[in-house]
Amino acid sequence: MREKLMSLAQAADLIKDGMLLGIGGNGMHRNPVLFSLALTRKPLKELKVCGAAPGIGADILLATFQADTAYFGFFGLENEAGLAPGMRKAMEGPEPKARAMEGS
């Protein structure tokens, strides 16, 4: 059976431009922050992030403009930190603009 464990760098190398990433966690809890930071060291673009309540892990990818689309029910950093500043920056910033996708 093939080994399923890998380093953070090996996992980050699996991510390619335009991929949809299901970001786990909820707000400020159980987020893959180190994984998101590892992705910021790569020249990735047009990533899509998805989660019921993505938090800081997804916010990092939007703040760096590596992600341009987010699918979510609620996007914030809990009561203590309020709205996700990276998502706001991406939605209001110059380019590329992030798009909030409405459900059907």
Lay out the secondary structure.
Blueprint: H1 8-13, E1 20-22, H2 33-40, E2 47-51, H3 56-63, E3 67-72, H4 78-81, H5 85-92, E4 99-100
Parallel strand pairs: 1-2, 2-3, 3-4
Helix pairs in contact: 2-3, 3-5
Question: Which terms would index this structure?
Answer:
104 residues; alpha/beta; four-stranded parallel beta sheet; 5 helices; 4 strands; 33% helix
Describe the structure.
By secondary structure, the protein is of the alpha/beta class. It has one domain (17-96). 33% of the residues lie in helices and 15% in strands. It has helices spanning 8-13, 33-40, 56-63, 78-81, 85-92; strands at 20-22, 47-51, 67-72, 99-100. The mean pLDDT is 85.
How would you sum up the global shape? globular
Summarize the amount of helix as a percent range.
Answer: 25-40%
- Main sheet specs: 4 strands, parallel
Low-confidence stretches: none
As an assembly, this protein is: single chain
Radius of gyration, in Å, reads: 14 Å
Terminal-residue CA separation: 41 Å
Strand-pairing-aware structural class: alpha/beta
